[in-house]
């Protein structure tokens, strides 16, 4: 049997096979997400290369504010480090107070990331109907990333709460899976930042 | 919160009702929010208020779908987890799984893949027949070269509704019912990897279909199922239904793909290596990869179009820096794998059923699987053959012509497998066998018409004509839907314990088969003689052929509703009891008792072999000597 | 078992007869889109060649299917399993795959060659520079097809850039269609000439063809373009003799006289006069 | 029992017909049709029939009162072989043409129209508010918009006549000025809704 729970509804790490399923699926999600990112990348490069009606990036349309964008990158990296530490601690089964702190730190990083990104999107100095397609792609891409950050933050919160309230001890597979997701999204957001800021 | 079983259960019992209430509330709230605050975000106000507000409609649809799911109780678990609630107990899970049995579990959120399979079957059949109605009206309208029963507006609404609804439902017509129902059984699993996710993928389907149908109240949309921009930017609010419907369907395809892959690759019985996995499971695996990797491209395109319609972004408008080619590329990068999402499960289902009627092992199983994998891989490399006349990238045409024609190699293999299996077999012509034969016949025509479209010079004459329309109806309806009917006749005894009047079905089969071919052979001729798709008016000299197509089509509609009539009468009303294993199949799904135990196996098989050992007569699963039943099952 | 052998013979003979007969019929019968232009002839040739190759294979597979299903099966009583119950046969499989591969490759090569010979829809140029108008008749006659919701109009740069609502072409003269759109995607389909190319806003889609048969033809839009898509047709497109063409041009020039001063200078990308700029939604 | 099945089938079919009829008829209704008022006059031996239409900016009718539209309707019926004499009270403001070619008057008798009494063959492409164009008859007439500095309630009276074929037929007609304000290219909304800027001319 691949899992002990007869109903198969508790697909949890620490359950033989369950952890495997979790990691495997989390990586599938990353693969699927990659298609989404590549589609946006294609839109970015295609429209940029052709510059239809010379309306790719008309003069007067700026780029997202540099400082906020950098902060929005720094915070997730903090989260990555924290989650890396969490993953190591969990896999080496160390006592959980450090884990709790690290989890809170990571969660704080995600929340701040979301807040900064929302602020960032308010700072865009363009209206979509007349700013050319650079603004369109940038807005859409930042919106998609924001949504994904929020999604991972929710997942992380459920882990934190489960761990804090002791309803569910954090397993190595879970820790590794969320670390991978977080790292992936952070990497994507860095790439997007470089494109939006310097390939405008 | 899900940790209080009594409350959760009492709410869950009324899931469907609460869901509808939630949908209404969600739509009202979403429309208010969207047409109010959000619509002025970024300083762009959507269309004039006399047209209603695009942001309002979009957000209204989104929130009504969310409200529906919330009412169904999908968010209890995740929200509970957000607050660190305890995991549901096994008892809760068993309840959610529908262990209590009863008819009620078919009308609420259940995590039993068998219940979900039945839900899929019913909902998809319902929507398929609604879509068929559209076809009936289109053909009736086309009896005359000038508008008769419908005006230009209504006709385009009908075309859009028929095509889009059919595409929605065909995306899961075989994976939905049979994939969900039988894959876990065939691989010796007690459940899917993510049962709640599986329930979600199903319950996204009715909202998508209803949102699409609601377009008639918003004036319909005139773009057909391809939704080409910039016409889509120009459309009235009806377009938003198309976009939101497609967004939900894309989500459903991607999620069910992820779930199926995870289930097949990580939840297989330890004793079952990939080499001994049933061929239908293989086809589901290939299809799931297509869905999981292609659907996000559609979601990206739909997001861009939603941005264009709400905030007047210019992704697809040249004057604003966009390009119609962007939509065409993204849409068809999803759209071409999509057509194999339709057909590959049909391959698998047919190859799964064939040995039971040939009374022989599946011949050339490995190459058959290789063929399906090959189709899957190639389908990502051919999308621009839809754009041969669009003027895009002429230098790439030879490549796409080549890759497209290459697809006929792996599909040819399927025919080889069928021929080899039937070769010197003791074939039984059971009713499903007739539909299987029709599948091969129709798909053969579909494939050979495809050759003409893949070749650029001939495509310049045939593109966007009724030849194309007949071609994909031969592959999707002649292929997938005939396989679906075969599967229904074949698997109903297992899924419901009841059967249909096989004799009557044979007449029904010949009626469907002949009228179907009569319709679409006429349309092939119409296309070659130069009639464009989606025209309400056509040249007078095309009327005879169109009339023959229409008359055959109406007869086809009648014979299809005969199928529905037999199904309803025999299975729902008369409840004709079926034999335990009417086809004397050796598959494991026929070894488990009917109705299938809640957790599929009272005892787990100890060893597995291929499900088609008709030479030795050894069944797929060996349950070994009697052992005590597993606890909890 | 001799009756099986005879059955095989019968099926094979039937198939050969059907295949040959069908191919002969195809070769004799007229193949759309016909011979009204060099492009159309090449397209009908390709369709003919594909059909002649495809039909025997198609009927062959059908014959094999029929043969295996109906003739070549063992009577149910036969209890013992015949040697054919093997799970595969590498030789057969390789042969089959090789055969289909060869057919497909030959088709692809043939199509590519045809494509290289006559470049149908030679593709797009997004330049907005207006080219100098062709000086003399021996150059291809440039005709711009302007698709708009929901009518095609045509410009003749060679003749002072007059614009007409009817398409008239001189016979045996190389025509260079420049297809563009003022709003959404349309598709210009001149069935008899085998010309079909999408009209995309701010795009210039080029197709060349030499009409070879005088006559009156139908042009229509073949890409869904909105409410009147089904009516975006014109049955009065004509291919006429050179002299008739000259007279027609004269008539149109006089007819267009009042509007000439309003028409924009000829350009490959006919954006239209008040094509809404950045705020594209509000004209 | 077979008969029950057929009853079910009949039920399915009837329900389908009902649904489809609803969709085709009521969701996108076909506007009312008006018939030309016949006169005693003849031109070249053909009877002359009259229409008087009004084009308005924002006092349209039906579900979209804010849309530009032809009043009273856009579904016109004329006898075969008649000379249709149309008078249009043009009360809308200019939108300008996308394709200046449509500022040419063509297909009418002598390829001309009269605007407020004076004969015109073409107008400035920036001035039209709408056009009256029947593509399949080759008829196209630009309707000059009311200048912004004109006094209130002023209008341009446009008159023109054209000959319709001698056999029955259904000809769609439309406006070629992108006047669907707020929609992409100005060609959405009223431009793609029957009864506003799209209609049909039934001959016979």
Protein described:
The complex is a heterotetramer of chains A (200), B (633), C (283) and D (204). Chain B is mainly alpha-helical and 633 residues long. A two-stranded antiparallel sheet of chain B has the order 1-2. Chain B folds into two domains: 1-110, no CATH class; 111-590, Cytochrome C Oxidase, Chain A (Up-down Bundle), CATH 1.20.210. Chain B has 22 helices and two strands. Chain C is of the alpha+beta class and 283 residues long. Chain C is 38% helix and 21% strand. Chain C has four helices and eleven strands; from the N terminus they run αααβββββββββββα. In chain C, the strands form two sheets. A six-stranded mixed beta sheet of chain C has the order 1-9-6-2-3-4. In chain C, strand 7 (186-190) and strand 8 form a beta hairpin. Chain D has one helix and 13 strands; from the N terminus they run H-E-E-E-E-E-E-E-E-E-E-E-E-E. Chain D is 13% helix and 37% strand. By secondary structure, chain D is mostly beta strands. In chain D, strands 2, 3, 4, 6, 7, 8 and 11 form a seven-stranded mixed beta sheet that branches. In chain D, strands 1-5-13-12 form a four-stranded mixed beta sheet, with no helix packed on it. In chain D, strands 9-10 form a two-stranded antiparallel sheet. Chains in contact: A-B, A-C, B-C, B-D, C-D. At the B-C interface, helix 7, helix 15, helix 16, helix 17 and helix 18 of B face helix 2, helix 3, strand 1, strand 8 and strand 10 of C.
Concise structural overview:
The complex is a heterotetramer of chains A (200), B (633), C (283) and D (204). Chain A is an all-alpha fold and 200 residues long.
- How many strands of chain D? 13
> What is the rounded Rg of chain D?
20 Å
Give the class-level CATH name of the largest domain in chain C. Mainly Beta
What string, H for helix and E for strand, traces the elements of chain D in order? HEEEEEEEEEEEEE
CATH superfamily of the largest domain in chain D: Cupredoxins -  blue copper proteins
Number of domains of chain C: 2
Kindly report how far apart the N and C termini of chain C lie.
82 Å
Question: For the residues shown, what is the average pLDDT of chain C?
Answer: 81
- What is the CATH homologous superfamily assignment of the largest domain in chain C? Cupredoxins -  blue copper proteins
CATH class of the largest domain in chain D: Mainly Beta
The tally of beta strands of chain C, per DSSP, is: 11
Q: What portion of residues of chain C is helical?
A: 25-40%
Number of domains of chain D: 2
Largest interface: B-C, 89 and 94 residues
CATH hierarchy: architecture of the largest domain in chain C: Sandwich
- The percent range for strand residues of chain D is 35-45%
For the largest beta-sheet of chain D, the strand count, sense and barrel status come to: 7 strands, mixed
Widest beta sheet: strand line-up of chain C: 1-9-6-2-3-4
């Amino acid at each position: 049997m691949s899992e002990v729970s007869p109903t198969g509804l508790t697909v949890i790490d620490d359950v033989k096979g369950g952890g495997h399923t979790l990691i495997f699926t989390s990586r599938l999600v990353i693969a699927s997400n990659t298609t989404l990112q590549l589609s946006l990348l294609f839109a970015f490069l295609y429209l940029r290369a052709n510059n239809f009606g010379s309306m790719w990036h008309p003069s007067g349309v700026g780029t997202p504010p540099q400082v906020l964008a950098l902060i929005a990158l720094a915070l997730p990296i903090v989260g990555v480090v924290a989650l890396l530490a969490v993953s190591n601690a969990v896999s080496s089964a160390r006592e959980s107070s450090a884990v709790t702190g690290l989890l809170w730190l990571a969660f704080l990083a995600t929340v701040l990331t979301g807040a900064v990104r929302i602020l960032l999107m308010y700072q865009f100095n363009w209206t979509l109907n007349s700013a050319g397609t650079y603004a369109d792609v940038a807005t859409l891409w930042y919106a998609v990333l924001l949504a994904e950050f929020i999604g991972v933050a929710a997942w992380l919160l459920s882990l934190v709460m489960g761990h804090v309230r002791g309803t569910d001890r954090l397993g190595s597979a879970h820790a590794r899976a969320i670390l991978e997701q977080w790292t992936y999204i952070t990497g994507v957001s860095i790439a997007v930042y470089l494109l939006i800021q310097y390939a405008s | 919160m899900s940790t209080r079983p009594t409350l959760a259960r009492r709410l869950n019992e009324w899931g469907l009702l609460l869901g509808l209430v939630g949908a209404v509330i969600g739509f009202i709230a979403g429309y208010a929010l969207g047409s109010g605050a959000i619509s002025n975000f970024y300083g762009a106000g959507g269309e004039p208020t006399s047209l209603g507000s695009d942001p309002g409609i979009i957000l209204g649809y989104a929130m009504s779908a969310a409200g529906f799911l919330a009412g169904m109780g999908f968010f209890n678990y995740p929200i509970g987890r957000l607050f660190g609630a305890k995991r549901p107990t096994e008892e809760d899970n068993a309840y959610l799984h529908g262990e209590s049995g009863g008819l009620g579990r078919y009308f609420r959120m259940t995590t039993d893949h068998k219940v979900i399979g039945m839900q899929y079957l019913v909902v998809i059949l319902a929507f398929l027949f609604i879509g068929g109605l559209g076809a009936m009206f289109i053909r009736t309208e086309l009896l005359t070269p000038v508008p008769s029963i419908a005006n230009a507006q209504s006709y385009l609404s009908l075309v859009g509704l028929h095509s889009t609804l059919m595409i929605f439902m065909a995306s899961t017509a075989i994976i939905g019912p049979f994939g969900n129902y039988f894959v876990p059984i065939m691989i010796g699993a007690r459940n899917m990897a993510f049962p709640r996710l599986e329930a979600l993928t199903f319950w996204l389907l009715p909202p998508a279909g209803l949102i699409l149908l609601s377009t008639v109240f918003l004036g319909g949309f005139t773009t057909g199922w391809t939704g080409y921009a910039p016409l889509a930017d120009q459309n009235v609010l009806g377009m938003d239904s198309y976009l939101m419907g497609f967004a939900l369907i894309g989500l459903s395809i991607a999620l069910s793909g992820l779930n199926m892959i995870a289930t097949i690759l990580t939840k297989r019985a330890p004793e079952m290596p990939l080499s001994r996995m049933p061929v239908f499971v293989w086809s589901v695996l290939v299809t799931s990869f297509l869905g999981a990797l292609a659907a996000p491209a559609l979601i990206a395109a739909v997001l861009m179009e939603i941005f264009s319609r709400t905030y007047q972004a210019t992704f697809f408008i040249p004057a604003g820096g966009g390009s119609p080619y962007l939509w065409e590329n993204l849409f068809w990068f999803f759209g071409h794998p999509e057509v194999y999402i339709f057909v590959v499960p049909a391959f698998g289902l047919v190859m799964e059923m064939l040995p039971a009627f040939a009374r022989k092992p599946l011949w050339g199983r490995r190459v058959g699987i290789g063929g399906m994998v090959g189709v899957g891989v190639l389908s990502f490399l051919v999308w621009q053959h839809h754009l041969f006349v669009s003027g895009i990238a002429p230098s790439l045409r030879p490549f796409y012509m080549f890759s497209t024609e290459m697809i006929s190699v792996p599909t040819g293999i399927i025919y080889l497998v069928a021929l080899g299996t039937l070769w010197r077999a003791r074939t039984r012509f059971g009713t499903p066998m007739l539909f299987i034969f029709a599948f091969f016949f129709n798909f053969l025509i579909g494939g050979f018409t495809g050759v003409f479209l893949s070749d650029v010079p001939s495509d310049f004459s045939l593109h966007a004509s009724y030849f194309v329309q007949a071609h994909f109806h031969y592959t999707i309806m002649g292929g997938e839907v005939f396989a679906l009917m075969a599967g229904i006749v074949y698997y109903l005894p297992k899924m419901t314990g009841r059967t249909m009047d096989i004799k009557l079905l044979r007449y029904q089969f010949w009626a469907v088969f002949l009228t179907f071919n009569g319709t679409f052979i006429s349309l092939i001729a119409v296309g070659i003689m130069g009639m464009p798709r989606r025209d309400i008016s056509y040249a007078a000299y095309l009327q005879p052929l169109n009339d023959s197509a229409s008359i055959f089509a109406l007869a086809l509609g009648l014979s299809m509703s005969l199928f529905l009539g037999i199904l309803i009468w025999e299975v729902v009303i008369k409840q004709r009891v079926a034999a335990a294993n009417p086809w004397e199949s050796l598959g494991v799904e026929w070894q488990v008792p009917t109705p299938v135990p809640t957790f599929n196996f009272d005892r787990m098989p100890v060893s597995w072999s291929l499900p088609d050992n008709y030479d030795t007569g050894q069944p797929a699963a060996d349950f070994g000597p009697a052992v005590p039943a597993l606890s909890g099952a | 078992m001799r009756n099986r052998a005879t059955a095989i013979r019968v099926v094979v003979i039937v198939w050969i007869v059907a295949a040959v007969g069908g191919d002969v019929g195809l070769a004799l019968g007229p193949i759309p889109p016909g011979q009204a232009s060099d492009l159309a002839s090449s397209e009908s040739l390709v369709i003919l060649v594909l059909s002649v190759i495809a039909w025997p294979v198609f009927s062959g597979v059908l014959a094999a299917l029929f043969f295996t299903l109906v003739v070549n099966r063992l009577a149910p009583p036969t209890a013992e399993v015949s040697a054919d119950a093997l799970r595969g046969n590498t030789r057969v499989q390789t042969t089959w795959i090789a055969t289909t591969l060869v057919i497909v490759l030959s088709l692809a090569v043939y199509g590519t060659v045809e494509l290289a010979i006559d470049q149908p829809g030679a593709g797009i140029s997004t330049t907005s520079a207006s080219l100098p108008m062709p000086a003399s008749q021996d150059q291809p006659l440039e005709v711009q097809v302007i698709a708009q919701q929901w009518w095609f109009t045509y410009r003749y740069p060679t003749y002072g850039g007059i614009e007409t609502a009817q398409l008239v072409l001189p016979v045996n003269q190389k025509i260079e269609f420049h297809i563009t759109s003022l709003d959404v995607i349309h598709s210009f389909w001149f069935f008899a000439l085998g010309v079909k190319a999408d009209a995309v806003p701010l795009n210039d889609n080029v197709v060349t063809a030499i009409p070879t048969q005088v006559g009156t033809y139908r042009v229509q839009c073949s890409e869904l373009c909105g409410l009147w898509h089904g009516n975006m047709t014109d049955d009065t497109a004509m291919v006429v003799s050179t002299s008739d063409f000259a007279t027609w041009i004269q008539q149109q020039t006089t007819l267009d006289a009042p509007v000439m001063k309003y028409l924009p200078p000829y350009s490959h990308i006919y954006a239209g006069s008040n094509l809404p700029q950045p705020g594209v939604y509000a004209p | 029992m077979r008969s029950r099945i057929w009853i079910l089938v009949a039920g399915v079919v009837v329900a389908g017909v009902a649904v489809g009829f609803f969709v085709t008829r009521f969701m996108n209704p076909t506007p009312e049709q008006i018939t030309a008022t016949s006169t005693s006059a003849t031109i070249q031996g053909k009877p002359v029939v009259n229409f008087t239409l009004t084009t308005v900016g924002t006092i349209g009718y039906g579900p979209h009162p804010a849309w530009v539209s032809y009043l009273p309707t856009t579904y016109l019926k004329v006898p075969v072989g008649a000379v249709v004499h149309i008078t249009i009270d043009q009360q809308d403001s200019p939108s300008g043409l996308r394709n200046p070619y449509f500022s040419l008057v063509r297909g009418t008798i002598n390829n001309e129209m009269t605007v407020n009494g004076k004969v015109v063959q073409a107008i400035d492409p920036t001035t039209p508010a709408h056009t009256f164009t029947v593509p399949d008859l080759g008829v196209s007439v630009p309707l000059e918009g009311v200048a912004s500095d004109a006094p209130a309630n002023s209008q341009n009276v446009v008159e023109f006549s054209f000959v319709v074929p001698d056999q029955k037929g259904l000809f769609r007609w439309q406006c070629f000025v992108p006047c669907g304000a707020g929609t992409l290219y100005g060609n959405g909304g009223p431009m793609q809704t029957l009864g506003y800027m799209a209609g049909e001319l039934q001959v016979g």
